[in-house]
Structures are given as C-alpha cells and as structure tokens.
Amino acid sequence: MSSHSRRLLTSLALVATAALALTACAVSGTPAADEGATESSDAYPVTIEHVFGETEITEKPERIVTIGWYAQDVAAALGVVPVGVEDFSWGTVDTYLPWFADKVDELGGELPEVLSLTDSGDYDYEQILALDPDVILAVHSGIDEKTYDRLAEIAPTVAYADKVWSSEREDLTLKVGRILGQEEETQALLDESDAAIAAAAADHPEFAGVVFTYGWFLPEAQTSADLYLQRDPRVRLTEELGFVSSPQVVGAADSTEDFTFAVSLEELADVESQFHIGWGNSPEDVTRTVENPLVSRWAPIANGSYYFFLDNSTLSWATTAPSVLSIPATIDEIADELASGLKTN
Amino acid sequence: MTRSIGLVVALIALGAAVIVSLGVGARVVAPTAVLDALFAYDGSDLHAIVRDARLPRTVIGVIAGIALGGCGALIQAYTRNPLADPGILGVNAGATFAITMGAGFLGLRAPLQYMWLSLGGALVVTLLVYVIGRASREGATPIRMTLTGVALGAILTGLSSIVVLKNLEIFSSLRFWGMGSLGGRNAEVISTVAPVVILGLIIAAFASGSLNAIALGDDLGASLGVNIPLTRGLAIAGVTLLAGGAVALAGPIAFVGLMVPHAVRWFTGPDQRWILAFAVVVAPVLLLVSDVIGRVVLPEGELPVGIVTVVLGAPVLILLARRRQVSGL
After folding, report:
1. Residue B173: its chain A contacts at CB < 8 A?
2. How many whole angstroms separate alpha carbon B143 and alpha carbon B140?
3. What is the domain extent for residue B149?
4. A73: CATH
5. How many angstroms away from the CA of B65 is the closest CA of chain A?
6. Distance of alpha carbon A271 from alpha carbon B297, whole angstroms
7. A326: which of A271, A318, B223, B236 fits an S-S bond (Cβ 3.0–4.6 Å)?
8. pLDDT tens-digit profile of B25-59?
C-alpha cells in the first residue's frame, strides 16, 4: 500500500510540525556571518527546473524557508540559516536535527521558526508569508501542485526534481548551492561527504557485494511488505557503503510513482536479499515484523541478518535524509550499526 | 422446510468460501496443495503460505463474520430498526476508540490486550448509551438509544481520527488495522477472542425467542410473558460481546452487520431465530469473499477487507433503500 506510505511520510513532514509550532515563536534568521561570501553577483539570475516548471531566482536569497527535508542542512552547511524549517521531532529527536542545530550554533545564528500546519494538514501560509522568505526550498518533499502554487505566490519556490520524496544527493545539493550562488563550496561539501562514506565503506569491507533490502516495519494487520526503491536517498546511501540493491527492488522502479513498492508477504520469498534493513517506532514494531510467519521464513530474517533503526532516532533521520551535514557526523556510526546486524556465511 | 434447505445451501457456500480463501492470493494454490498444506505439511514456502498465513486469516474471517452477522441480527431486532447495525449504537466506535487509545498511548498491542480494550470500549459505550437514553420519562426506548448511539459514535470516531492523524506513530501502527483487515494478525488473537464470540452467540440465541415477542411492541411482548428488562439486558450483553470481539479480531468493518441480517430476512421472514441462524452463516461468506477480492484486485499489495465491504456494501445499501417494500420486522 504505497499510497499509504506516501501519506504517512507526507504526514511526517506536515502533521508533525503542528505540535511544537506554538513553542517556536521567536523569528530568527539572520543569514549568519559573511564568511561564506564567495558568491559573485554575476551568478544571478539562476533558473532551476523542477517537477512543476522553472523557477528564476534573481539575487542571492537571504531569508530561506525550507519545506520537507534536506534543504535546511545544505543551506546551513553553506552558512545560511533558514528562517523557517519543518519540525523534525521523532522519537529521541526534539524539533531540530542535531547536526543542523550544531551548525547553527557554530554559525552563531538563531534556530529557525518551525513551520506549523492547519487542522486540514495544509501549511500555515500566513506564517510562511510572515517569515517574508526570499525563496522557498521544497527540493526533497511531498508537496502537490496546489501547495506549490500557494507557496509560489509567497516567494519563488523550488520543488523536487521529478517524484515525491525522491532525490539524488549531488543533484539536490548542487541545486541549493546554485540558488545560494556558492557552487564551488557546495562541490567541496559533496566531496567531503563522499570521502566520509568511502572511508566508512573501507572500514567495512564485509559490506561489499551484499544484496540488501530496506523497508518499513509491518504495522498490525498489514499483509504486504513496503520496500524502498533505489530513488529513495536511504537506499542510495546504503549502496554507497558497498551493499547492492536486490534485483527485485531495482526491477520495481517503474511499477509506481512512489518511493516504496509493496510486495505481498506471500511473494516475499521471491525477493532476493542477504541483509534486510528496517526501522520501527517501538520494539513491538520490530518483533511483530520479524515474527510474522511469512517474514520469519524470508532469507535475511531467517538467517538473522537484519538491522532495524529503532532507539536512536538521530541515526534513523541520518539514514532517511542523508545530507552533507549529517553524513560526516553520522556515517561511521551508521556503518557500525549495520555491521552489527549483518551476518555473512 | 425451505428454510432448512436454504441453511444447508448457505453452509455449503461457507465451505466453498473457506476453500477459496485458502487457495487464492498473490500465489495461487491448487485445492489439492491446500489439503496437503493442512494435512501433509512439508515446510515449503507454499505450504507455509496456506497454513501460517491464509489459515489464520480464514479462521479470523469466519469468526469475525459470525460475530458481525450475529451482532447485526441482534441489534436490528433489539432496536426494531431493520437498517440498524453495530455502528448505530456507537459500539464499534467505542471499541475502536479504546484500542486506538490503548495501542497509541499505553503501548497495549498484544492480542489479549486488544480484546480487553475492545470489549471494555464496547461495554462502556453500550452502558453510556443505555444510561443517557434512559434519562427520560419513557425510559430507554430503541429510538432514544439509537439517537444516543449515533451521537456518541460520531464523537468517538472523531476523537479517534484526531488522535490518529495528529500522532504519526499511532497512525503508522494502526493504519491497516484501522481500515478493517483479516490478514496480518497474530494467530494468538483467535484463541483469545473465539470464546467471547461463542458466549455472545449463545446469549444472542437465548434472547432471539423473546425478541420475536418484543417485535410486537413492549406492551404486547410483556403481555405474552416476556421479561422485557431481562431481554434488553441480554441483547445488550450479546451486542457488546459480538461487536467487541469482531473489532478485536479484524478492526472496524462496516456494512456486513447491516446488510446480511437485512438481506436474509427477505428469505427467512421475521422469525428472529431463523434470521440469527442465517446471518451467522451468510456473514462469514460475505466477509471471506470480500477479503479474497481485496487480495487480488490490486496489481501490487492488497486492499483491506474493510474497504472492500464498504465498496460492495454501499451499492447494496442503495438497492435496499430502493426496494418498494423494505423487509420490516
């Protein structure tokens, strides 16, 4: 039921912000420090193509609102603290992603306002309007065209490239870099992340060539498994560590517009995998999943070769939306955790 | 005599539905292989699919169907409303609300905990409806109770939705169960809930004779020697056990409890005992067939049975409403 996954993840981005919005009343967002002043004014105007058309940015934006995930990390890494971001509260993570908060602290900026939602699950457009953004970055998000149109009335808005919640790190990061007029610095950040991943992969040669799958936990009464497709950033990151996507995952790419696909548990045995990665909100989620009579027979689970991101929500986020900020901070730990679950014969 | 033959036919249909439910899914299993899986299990994936996934799923469908059919028959007789269903007294909403809160905030997710939450929620709401409905000069008339139940049900459904939509973790845990689903449940839930449903069924059978007399009106019923308060108490107990059991097994499933007793009444006539007997056989057939349709209708994944029964049920309801003569009580 991939449409439900999308609905859930959209909710994660949308609904969750409501809870803490009331507490986040201080408007922040001085574009922190001028140290990253490598931009040249002849870089503008910049035109970015995305799923809903083209957006032109005529001068370096100073007040940025980010919708969805990812973009706030890239902007902060480039020295610009957004004025409005999503609420990232999940398990042990409270409001802001830790590497983002650290970076804002390092820049001497103020933590941004958290975007709130209306009862109907829409963004609070009045709040976004009041933040007076120069640009709205929804480069890794699940916004629909109607939402895009509303946002674009407030400020130039850049949506995702092609499909909801699906992006490539290089592409997305460079896009934000171009919008901020700091492409060279952006490339340096990407190189740093790639090097960190390569080092983690080198520390774990056992990952190389292991066929893996990455999926949802099984909610009560679900009869199919939702597996992430290659276009989801978490799958890509795992591949960069040396793992290889299951051929069935690769083959399912065109079967849906979503970032996950559903496999009936009756057909799970046909999905090749030597190592399964998942996540859950509670230990019961993991138990229910691995003890399901059909899942427990599936090769990676039967062999005890699996890992679920569970207690440490920081790592769950780091693998879900791996950015140039989160990767250097967390990739070693992610690799060590995955290694703890991997059983090779 | 016709009714006896009809019941035998319905039982045969139930047997056929069970076989189809064991044989059809993402993997098609031949009937002979189904029998092998049950009686000569060889540990293969195919046999595991039949024995460990489809068998519990089918058993849950049969028991939940019996509970829904029995509950619907009971509640239609009790409220003297031929279009009543367990939802109309707020019972389903109460059970669902209790499970949503318990699973979401208290982390109660074991089958036994589901059942107690479900029964507790069903019972509290039934009693509330009774107490609120009684607070008038005429006492707890079926109409007053129905109105109270509809109102309470609306409130509780709204509250459950708010909680689920505002809390991502609850939403992700309950998004399938909350739509009504026979599959993917721990088989433990069967042995936990079956006794409750059986008890509810015995009570329903016991009450149905007296309900025939009440159908003529409370005064006439009383003059025929029926103990009205006792009959009402039994009916409420039966509804609570059956509706609570059904929700604990398969989540909130709409329309089955409404449609089946109403439809079988065309065939059986107004005798509550026959209606009950037919309803508890026909309802599981409808539920299993809906579940099988849900398994095969999508190119990938499955449609929860609760969605299928609504899609199937809505046109049937329109058909019922369009009949010149609705089968009354």
Report:
1. 219-220, 281-282, 285
2. 8
3. 58-322
4. 3.40.50.1980
5. 17
6. 21
7. A318
8. 888 888 888 889 999 988 888 899 999 999 999 99
Determine the straight-line distance between the first and last CA of chain B, rounded to whole angstroms.
Answer: 21
Q: Biggest alpha carbon distance in chain A?
A: 62
Question: Which residues of A, range 77-106, sit inside 8 Å of B by Cβ?
Answer: 90
Q: Select from B175, B253, B296, B307 the residue whose CB has the most chain A CBs within 10 Å, as the one to mutate to test that interface.
A: B175
Q: With contacts defined as CB-CB under 8 Å, which chain A residues touch B292?
A: none
* Nearest residue, CB atoms, B176 vs list A221, A284, A297: A221
Q: pLDDT at residue B196 above 50?
A: yes
Percentage of the residues of chain B whose pLDDT score is greater than 70: 96
A251 touches chain B (CB under 8 A): no
User: Is residue B11, in this structure, part of any structural domain at all?
Assistant: no
**Better pLDDT: A199 or B218:** A199
Q: Is residue B44 part of a domain?
A: no
Give the whole-angstrom CA distance, residue B17 versus residue B25. Answer: 13
pLDDT-based confidence at residue A139 (cuts at 50, 70, 90) = very high
Q: Identify whether residues A242 and A102 lie together within a single domain.
A: no
Contacts of B267 (CB under 8 A, 6+ apart): B3, B6, B278
A261 touches chain B (CB under 8 A): yes
Q: Does some domain include residue A187?
A: no
Question: What's the average model confidence in pLDDT over B220-228?
Answer: 81
Closest CB from A15, A261, A267 relative to B168:
A15
B41 falls within a domain: no
Does A301 touch chain B if contact means CB atoms closer than 8 Å?
A: no
∠ CA A200-A272-A199, nearest 5°, is 5
The predicted model gives A21-46 an average pLDDT of 50
Q: Is residue A189 part of a domain?
A: no
Question: Is A263 in contact with B185 (Cβ distance < 8 A)?
Answer: no
* Domain match, A117 and A227 both: no
Residue A282: per-residue pLDDT: 84
Q: Which residues in B lie closer than 8 A to residue A297 (C-beta atoms)?
A: 45, 48
Q: Which domain does A85 fall in, by range?
A: 2-181
Which of A90, A220, A282 has its CB closest to that of B174? A220
Residues A203 and A173 in one domain: no
CATH number for the domain that contains residue B209:
1.10.3470.10
On average, the pLDDT of chain A sits at 87
Q: What is the pLDDT of residue A9?
A: 46
Which residue is closest to A3 within chain B, CA to CA?
Answer: B301
B142-166 vs B91-105: helix crossing angle, rounded to 10: 30
Residue ending a domain, choose from A181, A210, A235: A181
Q: Helix, strand, coil proportions of chain A in percent (round to 5)?
A: 45, 15, 40
- Confidence class for position A8, pLDDT limits 50, 70, 90: very low
Q: Is the pLDDT of residue A27 over 50?
A: no
> Would you say B318 and B83 are in contact if contact means Cβ atoms under 8 Å apart?
no
A211 shares a domain with A164: no
Lowest mean pLDDT among A19-23, A37-41, A313-317, B200-204: A19-23
Q: Do A223 and B181 touch (CB under 8 A)?
A: yes
Mean pLDDT value across residues B85-110: 83
Query: Domain count of chain B?
Result: 1
Q: How many domains does chain A have?
A: 2
B207 domain residue, yes or no: yes
Q: The whole model's pTM is what?
A: 0.82
| Distance of residue B37 Cα from the nearest chain A Cα, in angstroms | 14
Nearest CA in chain A to B110: A284
A chain contacts of residue B107, beta-carbon cutoff 8 Å: 282, 284
H or E stretch including A158? Answer: strand A157-158
pLDDT of amino acid A111: 94
**Is B219:B139 a contact under the CB 8 Å cutoff?**
no
How do A244-245 and A211-215 pair as beta strands? parallel
